[in-house]
């Protein structure tokens, strides 16, 4: 075990003391079989940004004895999620493969003298929240080889936060949710079903698609809660021309419209812009008869492009997104999904200066069922994935009575966005 003693990080804004108490590499409890030692990245794996997505699970109760159970069950889980314990074959992803060499994932332990409520009631996802994320401790995502990391932080009130940070190159939100729920089930003594990692048949490398666009800028991340009652009002407004719009459809369209308005106010004119909605394709996979256990990046993009000035109607955005989500009806394998992604990206004619807004919905994923043996989380938050671009994550609220949107925009645009009349009308300023 590698111990990091008295590594203290102080956040002056909240005057809290955060201390890393230990760091340990957790390896799979059983070696990966020879026929699974090499995992070929699919076209979609290669296209997604080189970022880690951190999920923060807040728990009201925790006892020190639970740490041993966490580590042991994580080790057992890594035998099923073996790519996470591996390493990329070459640095900078120059080879589209993962060497599943069982080198393990990093497990940090930390203490924080603040209260649980200091985090779950916080609107800003800033450096205070970053302290809970493991990559923050080792200088950022690009400075280390780990494909997954965990940090357990104990709070002064007796509660705790468990953070799982996973490379997007290995899997999507569905894969991450499956991994965490599998780990929690093992910690409780269960025997969950093992996943199937869908490896690509193609071995050639394609360049990672730059979805950021525009100049370097400072970004702000804020949380917004949209109650179902307000979303139902918005659905009725749109339902005149769109049949049975969903919560995610109307909220994505609303936020995109308001974000574009804020960007136009800051720049003085409408810049060419794209909206990407990540679409789960598991149920359309012909080769996989168990879509619930398929692991990897198994999704494509539904896109809307804006090139001309003028008021954008919410129903028009929903119509364009829905048409792409419904097509095709089925796909053979992950390589066909990758080809679909490339086709849609090329049709957009992306170029430097084109603004991109990425929407990802984690609604209905069983994140609030992640029980390691001391109860279900009271709050789950998507942390900062250090992606320099505009990205919006949706999650269910703890009560399931609304959607929490974690919105990342340029700082000047965020200042305007959060005061937009429509955002104020459909959101609530209360995280309790």
Describe how the helices and strands are arranged.
Elements (H helix, E strand, L loop, with lengths): L6 E5 L4 E11 L11 E3 L2 H5 L4 E8 L6 H13 L8 E2 L8 E3 L5 E8 L4 H4 L6 H4 L17 E8 L4 E8 L5 H15 L8 E2 L21 E9 H11 L8 H21 L5 E8 L13 E2 L3 E8 L7 H13 L7 H15 L6 E7 L17 E4 L7 E7 L5 E9 H7 L3 H6 L6
Parallel strand pairs: 7-8, 10-13, 12-15, 15-17
Antiparallel strand pairs: 1-2, 2-7, 3-6, 4-9, 4-16, 5-6, 8-9, 11-18, 12-14, 17-18
Helix pairs in contact: 2-5, 7-8, 7-10
Give the low-pLDDT segments: 1-15
How many runs of DSSP E, i.e. beta strands?
A: 18
CATH topology of the largest domain: Chloramphenicol Acetyltransferase
CATH superfamily of the largest domain: Chloramphenicol acetyltransferase-like domain
Total helical segments: 11
- Report the top-level CATH class of the largest domain: Alpha Beta
Oligomer: single chain
